[in-house]
């Protein structure tokens, strides 16, 4: 018995209709004898018999639609090979199929179109076993329904038992780059418990390193070495150059900034901007604080404008961002400009000009909670002002000991350009305005 | 009002409605008139609209596109048919060097509202040059819109939009799905650049287009048996790519598998994965995977099912993104360095 | 290379007022001043051989057609009706010559000696090529319309540069004459006076499109504009085709450059097994061409020559049936490709990228229970 499956008579057809049978069950047929007219989506074609033998069964009636790959005719071809010219040809071919690594699903005892059953593949035994039933079918998935064709799809069996799937974790809002994720994993830090400092909720390496150190009893190595790159490397070189080539000197002044602070709290100008105004006023009286000393030519270069550098600490290192021609700005505008520089410094979007044009720098070291220190000059500049933390201290104010807001202001300077008298005068002028902001009106 | 149509018939309806709605629309191609196209996609259109509007062209692909450009100068909206994907190359110059650039070259003064229909993809058991996926060649060219369809509804709605567009559009029709049926609402006309999320899931995103959308959906159904939720995105437009929709999905799932029949090298998956890496890198829980045709010519179709993305290959990739055991878990690549893979 | 282009000759085309014919429908031998000198050695024996060739080619074609309907082949482009247009020129080819044909050249493939087992593999979609091109000196079948004509011209140019006694025959259909490639091939053949023969089998249809969609003038007139001599020949007359091909090959071998032959014939079957010609042409038209059958008229000619037709027919049938049986067995026994072959022969030197994919594909296949 041979079962003939409907082949794909066009290119990519899924079914065909039986227009007319030219034979009946029980008829004896010759090889290539016309058996039926079949209509595909493309044409009406004649089907010649693939065997010599007797028609045992017609699987479909006239007018019926048959799927490609479905049984169409059973032939009784007899057991005698010599009786059927094709028997010797077809039998070995049949036997070859199981060994052939081509598309499986062509069962040994049937003849099919080599390009049968759309959507089968080498592996899809399950699909091949189920004859193409292309009725659309609604299949339940975890979320809603999907309409699929050809029965419910299933996966081929693999050579191992499928492990049950367990959803590892609920993905929280915090994200991190893969190396940071690894760091967190290595340190036993749950990313979702870290406060992200990066843009778009990104947890940075520093966030992980600074997170719950105590709660993570991971044996820390005695020391680690990390390659210094990028901005940090650049800063290191610049500071070294400055410290080694410029004779630094410094002077300090504790200043009662109560009134300036009150002004900052009540108005639109930040304390840093108001302090900057005080500095800018002082530069008018001491213009050489913004000059640059050129050791190679022994020249002093003086500038038309005060380009006020704002020192900003970022993840990648320290940068000094310039607010050019700052002397012309009021405190409100300076507030905006300083904020802009800080934000963009952290984004890394400052221009090269903004990173290199300052001629005097202010550094608000107070944000780190310290009172002061001796800042190293930004290369090429002659003065840098450090503002310490503002503390409530007992203070002699109008001859009474009261609590006042006090800040230590430090000026580091290039001793080749400025001497102690000028630096002290500059600092005293700054202090005077900070103590009594109304003085600014007079200066 | 919906009707049940095969994808081929949905394309036919979109062409008919476009011809009906705008008398400047005309069709041109080999065998599209009297024969009704080799896939019968244009069946009956010449009878209905006449040989002046449904033109049986001489056998010359470069001329089909080149003359359509000339017609576009006079304001016709030509829908040109390239009979099979593998036959498009003689027209390559007219497409990538001519029609793609005319708006740009004319400082916006010339519109080329040309639609180029191309049956593409395999799984039809055919001979050489009849099963290819050449879309990336065109996606690489600025000025061309390259879109696909995955269902009869998408075929109808997207083709209507393509014909209405003032840009040259390559419309790739999944010929292996021509005879699959689906509901079509002819009042829907889609845009040409948004992807569809066609199945929702939390665990992994599969991005597909054209014929592989169905494979991805079937994979999603099979994956559900194992408790894995697969989100399936039908990209629809290959150029421009709707990266936003994919990024939004990947931000939720953290995993991405891209599938298409075209080879992987310099392909849609190359572009999509690069874009997702640029925009959602920190959201990826695993390296993106792709399940595509291999980097070979389209093979003899007797082995095309090994070449084409399949449900099982897709789920194998899904397992990789989920860190589950998969076919490459124990794969020893060391043979490659010694050239002993063969 | 020095280039000499002959002046256009208005007399370049022969047969424009009626295809050149030497065998009438009733088998009568018609005189032809142009062709007769090239048929002097064709006796009853030689004509019988051409007859048997045509019967075998037709039998191969009809068996393959049936095998496609039976699902054994995926596709078949039948040549029924075009036997003479292929057998005549194929038997004029020298052993050393090359053929650059389309996808309907089963007659050429058979007569060039293609192994039927390998040949069947093309149409089972088991392989892209069904013979060794270098062994039978015939390029792989070409599906992209007209592309092979340029290859034929290039081969001929190279043969000329090498001083080889080789001619390239490139054959294509009426539809192909619209393609840029074919027109460019004519330019190059003319410019470089390449030893190439253009055989256009005008079977009246490019799938559904009648030849007048491609050309308002006889196709044989076209090459004259390129300076290429041309003959319009009855493509159902195997002797006329044989003689015309001999003329063209002789010219090429003599250094006289390219020749164009339009074989006026008819494709009686569909374009391929997936086509439905009833949609675009009348049955009466087909009937008219059946009356011009290329095999029938040779039978009549042989009868007129006094051949024992009963014996000739019996002999032809035995050989044709043998071929059909051989081809059916080949189709049914053909060894399918293994998936691993997908990765073979993409490059001369295997690339690491592709070998990696091969390895991954193997791993995938072996991960499936029961697969090999």
What's the structural blueprint in terms of helices and strands?
The complex is a heterotrimer of chains A (443), B (342) and C (372).
Chain A: E1 2-5, E2 15-21, E3 28-29, E4 34-39, E5 44-48, E6 53-58, E7 65-67, E8 71-76, H1 87-99, E9 110-111, H2 125-129, E10 137-140, E11 145-148, H3 178-187, H4 205-209, H5 230-245, E12 248-256, H6 258-266, H7 271-285, E13 292-294, E14 299-301, E15 308-314, E16 317-323, H8 331-347, H9 352-356, E17 360-363, E18 383-397, E19 400-414, H10 420-435, H11 439-442
Parallel strand pairs in A: 1-9, 15-17, 17-18
Antiparallel strand pairs in A: 1-8, 2-4, 2-7, 3-6, 4-5, 6-8, 10-11, 12-19, 13-14, 15-16, 18-19
Chain B: E1 2-6, H1 7-21, E2 25-29, H2 45-49, E3 54-56, H3 61-73, E4 77-81, H4 92-98, H5 102-105, E5 115-120, H6 135-139, E6 145-148, H7 152-164, E7 169-174, E8 181-185, E9 196-199, E10 204-208, H8 212-224, E11 230-234, E12 237-239, H9 243-253, E13 256-263, H10 268-280, E14 289-293, H11 304-307, H12 311-321, H13 334-337
Parallel strand pairs in B: 2-3, 2-4, 4-5, 5-7, 6-7, 10-11, 10-13, 13-14
Antiparallel strand pairs in B: 1-8, 6-12, 9-11
Helix pairs in contact in B: 1-7, 3-4, 8-12, 9-10
Chain C: E1 13-14, H1 44-69, H2 83-90, E2 98-100, H3 106-112, H4 116-123, H5 133-136, H6 147-162, E3 168-173, H7 180-191, E4 196-202, E5 205-206, E6 209-210, E7 230-234, H8 238-253, E8 259-264, H9 283-290, H10 294-305, H11 309-333, H12 352-367
Parallel strand pairs in C: 1-7, 2-3, 3-4, 4-8, 7-8
Antiparallel strand pairs in C: 5-6
Category by helix and strand content of chain C = alpha/beta
CATH superfamily of the largest domain in chain C: Thiamin diphosphate (ThDP)-binding fold, Pyr/PP domains
Low-confidence stretches of chain C: none
| Main sheet properties of chain B | 7 strands, mixed
Strand content of chain B: 15-25%
Ends of chain C: how far apart?
56 Å
Q: Please state the average pLDDT score of chain B.
A: 96
| Shape annotation of chain C | globular
CATH topology of the largest domain in chain C: Rossmann fold
Order of helices and strands of chain C: EHHEHHHHEHEEEEHEHHHH
Number of helices of chain C: 12
Please provide a written account of the structure.
The complex is a heterotrimer of chains A (443), B (342) and C (372). Chain A is built from 11 helices and 19 strands. Chain A has helices at 87-99, 125-129, 178-187, 205-209, 230-245, 258-266, 271-285, 331-347, 352-356, 420-435, 439-442; strands spanning 2-5, 15-21, 28-29, 34-39, 44-48, 53-58, 65-67, 71-76, 110-111, 137-140, 145-148, 248-256, 292-294, 299-301, 308-314, 317-323, 360-363, 383-397, 400-414. By secondary structure, chain B is α/β, with parallel strands linked by helices. Chain B has 2 domains: 2-185, Thiamin diphosphate (ThDP)-binding fold, Pyr/PP domains (Rossmann fold, 3-Layer(aba) Sandwich); 196-321, Rossmann fold, CATH 3.40.50. In chain B, α3 (61-73) runs parallel beside α4, α8 packs across α12 (311-321) and α9 packs across α10. The mean pLDDT of chain B is 96. Chain C is α/β, with parallel strands linked by helices. Chain C has 2 domains: 13-337, Rossmann fold (3-Layer(aba) Sandwich); 339-372. The interface between A and B is large, with 52 and 60 residues. Chain C: InterPro entries: Alpha-ketoacid_DH_E1_comp, DH_E1, THDP-binding. Chain C: It comes from Agrococcus baldri. Chain C: Residues 54-331 form the Dehydrogenase E1 component domain. Chain C: Keywords: Oxidoreductase, Pyruvate, Thiamine pyrophosphate. Chain C: One of its GO terms (molecular function) is magnesium ion binding.
